[in-house]
Amino acid sequence: MITITSIEMNAWIAGLLWPLTRILGLITAAPLFGNASVPVPVKIALGVLLASIIAPAIPALPAADPLSMAGLLILVQELLIGVAMGFAIRLVFAAIEMAGEICSLTMGLGFASFFDPLTKGRSSAVSQFLALIATMAFLAANAHLVLLEALAESFITMPISATPMSSSAEWEMAKWGGLIFSAGLHLSLPIVAALLITQVALGILTRAAPQLNIFGIGFPITLGVGMLVIVMVLPYLGNPFQVLFNQGIETARRVPRLAATPKAPAAPAQTTRPAALPLGPVDGAPGQQR
C-alpha cells in the first residue's frame, strides 16, 4: 500500500507551484506572451507545460510549507522575479511605441489615434504600425525562444530560496527604464530631421510668397514627407531592433543574477555568451551604443 505523508505532498506542490509562479509572472509581463488577445487559459496552460519541463531540473527547494508565511514570501519573490524579467522586454516595445508617437506628433497625425488593447489606452497609428513590425521582427529573430531560455537559466543563477532578494535588481530596472526615452528618440530621429527640414522649407516658401495658404498645403506636404521617410527607413530598422532585443534579453538575464547577489557591484559583468538573434549582422556587442 502506498502512503503519502503531508511533507511529501507539500514538497510536490512547492516543486511545481514556485517555478510556475515565476514562469507565469514572465508570461504576464512579457510582450507577445502577455498580449491581451491571447486567452488566459492558453497562458496558464503554457505556464504549466513549461513548469513541468523545468521543475525536474532546478536545484533543491527550501524546506518550507507552501501555505506558511515563509512559503508565501517565496511565492511573492518568484512572482516579482518573473515580472521583472518580462518587464525588461516590455520596455523595448515601449521604446519602439514611443518612437511612433514622436513621429506621429511631428507629422501631424496626433489626432489619428486608436484604442490599443495591450495597454488599454489610445495610441497613434504610426506607433501601432511600428509595434507590429517589432513583433514580427521579434518572432523572426526567435527572440521569444531566447527569452524562454533565459527564463530556464534563471533557476540556476537565482535558485528558488527563502533568502530575500537584493535591491540591486530594482535599481537595474530603474536604469533600464531610461531606454524608453533614449531609444525612442534615436529611432525617430530620421523622420524628425526630415520633417524639420520640410518645416524650414515651408517657412522660407511662405516668406517668399505670402499669398500661399500655408495651412492648406503644409499638412499634406508634411504628411507625405513623413510617410515617404517611414517607407525609406523601414529596411534599415533590422539592426536597431536586433540591438534592442539583445539588450532586453541581457537585462532579463541580469535581473535574477543581481537579485541573488547580496551586494551587487556598481557595474555588473556581462555574460560571455551573447543572445545571438539571427535577424542580421550587428557590429559590436549586444550592449553597444545605438
TrEMBL record:
Signal peptide positions (record): none
Segments crossing the lipid bilayer: 12-34, 40-58, 70-93, 99-118, 130-156, 176-202, 214-237
Pfam families (alphabetical): Bac_export_1
Feature: compositional bias, Low complexity: 260-279
Membrane topology: Multi-pass membrane protein
Disordered: region residues: 260-290
InterPro entries: FliR, T3SS_IM_R
Localization (cell): Cell membrane; Bacterial flagellum basal body
Key words of the record: Bacterial flagellum, Cell membrane, Cell projection, Cilium, Flagellum, Membrane, Transmembrane, Transmembrane helix
Family: Belongs to the FliR/MopE/SpaR family.
PANTHER family documented for this protein: FLAGELLAR BIOSYNTHETIC PROTEIN FLIR
Function: Role in flagellar biosynthesis.
Official protein name in the record: Flagellar biosynthetic protein FliR
Originating organism: Massilia violaceinigra
